[in-house]
UniProtKB/TrEMBL annotation:
Signal sequence segment: none
InterPro entries in alphabetical order: FAD/NAD-bd_sf (IPR036188), Flavin_mOase (IPR000960), Flavin_mOase-like (IPR020946), FMO-like (IPR050346)
Cofactor(s) demanded: FAD
Originating organism: Pinctada imbricata (Atlantic pearl-oyster)
UniProt-recorded name of the protein: Flavin-containing monooxygenase
Pfam families: FMO-like
Entries under Gene3D superfamilies matching the protein: FAD/NAD(P)-binding domain
GO molecular function list: flavin adenine dinucleotide binding; N,N-dimethylaniline monooxygenase activity; NADP binding
Family classification: Belongs to the FMO family.
Length: 443
């Protein structure tokens, strides 16, 4: 028996690895293991050509596609205190480099020994302790090579690090069942070359839809990018036809709201992902139009504060935030950070939601952080409660500027390289690629 706090981390992607880094840094206090269903750690960044099911029969986790570069400069996609190799001058690195960086992180912090791969978490349930408000956690796992066998382990705390970009959302479009062409979701997109000579309608054009439609347009005969966004990048290439979202499909194609029908070979849904926790029963959390309750600060289960989620906030600079979330989480479970009462936490969560609605955000954006500086407020809040410094302001500056740059110059903004100069400033290393040449770059 050990009197250390036993923590089960579910998933060894970037958030699981940040959790292990913080937990193992205080190994006198914590005993940590990450269960990872894949053969290797890395999460989504562990690319595979496979789609559908993997070699164990489970759905493939990674929605990463072959020709992918990160979509924010690496200088703001860095785990704090662990810089990228100096010789990597480019800011927008490839998916392969990102995976290497995660593996370097794992080795640098010596946490590979804490990762149990081939291990699928099937069920997580609280065990009430008579006379105590605290619970322990019953975690049921299987070796993915022997899925019919299960094993149970008991933990003091569970960190849910399963990501949120794997449970694809496909809207129900009338006429879909009659369509004779190919229907797919971007989670199964890997290679643009497969669209050679085809006519393709893409529904939902955000980060994935923007990138994938530009990739596919190099091969397809025609790409229709269909969306309802009011903030669409004006710099989006003109040869990709934009349309409002189609509401109907037919045997041969899609029908736009003005009644025009176009024939297409493929309908590709880039409509994003939905939260899902297959190992948690419905009485633990509820998900209502993408709002997860009862959760405090988008992380902490209000009834069971030893159950901590890393995959709830969306659209933020994930890597630095994961590290800070992990710092906060370890301080919650060992009691260094004090939580308000249950009622106060419920009120805080409701106030946060209502203030989003008041600001005009859609109800399903309950955990979006990409607007109104929400990610930085989130960070300040948890840093204050955890009594550690918040992320430096330069991250916000570079996030704002890089996203502006992308908006104005979507086809070339990832050619710009940056260097962080200090807590508050950065510089562009190749200023000839700055905003002043936007019109040239997008022509
Ligand atoms: C196509 C695409 C491109 C992206 N590009 C960027 C980018 O450029 N920059 C950026 O910051 N973010 C990007 N993202 C977002 C991405 O989600 C994050 O970068 C990051 O990978 C999230 O880390 P995570 O650890 O929370 O989740 P994940 O990376 O999804 O890792 C979760 C891990 O949990 C494991 N797991 C899941 N369920 C179980 C279970 N039941 N039992 C055991 N293990 C389990 C999975 O196998 C996986 O290894 C992209 C996402 C997609 C889909
Ligand atoms: N490195 C890269 O280049 C890269 C590439 C791809 C993805 N990513 C990352 O992957 C993550 C997921 O991005 P994503 O673009 O797949 O998902 P996303 O950001 O959730 O975008 C999905 C889009 O589909 C729209 N949509 C949903 N249902 C629709 C419907 N019925 N009709 C029309 N539009 C609909 C959504 O609109 P609403 O907003 O109104 O819901 C949204 O604009 C992000 O973190 C992103 O940064 C990175």
């Amino acid at each position: 028996m050990t009197d250390k706090i036993r923590v089960c981390v579910i998933g060894a992607g970037p958030s699981g690895c940040c959790s292990l880094r913080q937990l193992t840094a205080e190994c006198d206090k914590f005993e940590a293991i990450a269960y990872e269903r894949n053969l290797v750690p890395g999460g989504i960044w562990a690319y595979t050509d496979r789609t559908g099911t993997d070699e164990t029969g489970l759905p493939v986790h990674s929605a990463m596609y072959n020709n992918l570069k990160i979509n924010i400069p690496k200088e703001i996609q860095e785990f704090p205190g662990f810089p990228y190799p100096k010789e990597w001058k480019k800011s927008y690195i490839t998916r392969q480099q990102c995976l290497q960086y995660i593996n370097d992180f794992i080795d640098h912090f010596n946490i590979r020994k804490n990762i149990k791969t081939h291990t699928y978490v099937r069920d997580v349930s609280p065990i009430e302790i008579p006379g105590s408000k605290k619970v322990k956690w019953n975690v049921v796992i299987s070796d993915t090579r022997k899925l019919d066998e299960v094993k149970t382990e008991i933990f003091d705390s569970v960190f849910v690090c399963i990501g949120h970009d794997w449970n694809e959302y496909i809207p129900n479009i009338p006429g879909m069942e009659d369509f004779k062409g190919k229907i797919m979701h971007s989670r199964n997109y890997r290679h643009a070359e497969l669209f050679e000579g085809l006519d393709v309608a893409i529904l939902g054009v955000h980060f994935t839809g923007e990138d994938v439609s530009m990739q596919i347009a190099k091969h397809a005969r025609k790409v229709y990018a269909c969306h309802d966004r009011t903030d669409f990048p004006p710099s989006f290439p003109k040869h990709i036809e934009q349309h409002p979202s189609f509401m109907r499909m037919t045997k041969n194609g899609v029908v736009f709201p003005d009644g025009t029908e176009v024939k297409v070979d493929v309908v590709l849904f880039c409509t994003g992902y939905r939260y899902s926790y297959p190992f948690l029963k419905n009485d633990i959390i509820q998900i209502n139009d993408e709002r997860i309750t009862p959760i405090y600060k988008h992380m902490i289960h209000i009834k069971y504060p030893s159950l901590i989620f890393f995959n709830i906030p969306r659209q933020l600079t994930y890597f630095p935030h994961f590290n800070e979330m992990a710092k906060f989480a370890v301080r919650i479970i060992d009691g260094r950070a004090k939580l308000p009462t249950e009622d106060e936490m419920l009120k805080d969560s409701e106030d946060d939601y209502q203030s989003r609605l008041k600001d005009g955000m859609k109800p399903r954006y309950a955990h979006y952080m990409g607007l109104n500086n929400l990610q930085w407020h989130f960070n300040t809040d948890i840093a204050k409660m955890g009594n550690f410094p918040p992320l430096p302001p330069v991250l916000r500056k570079l996030w704002d500027d890089a996203l502006d740059e992308r908006q104005m110059n979507i086809t070339h903004s990832n050619e710009f390289n940056y260097e962080i100069m200090g807590e508050d400033s950065y510089k562009i290393l190749n200023p000839e690629g700055s905003k002043s040449r936007v019109s040239l770059a997008t022509a």
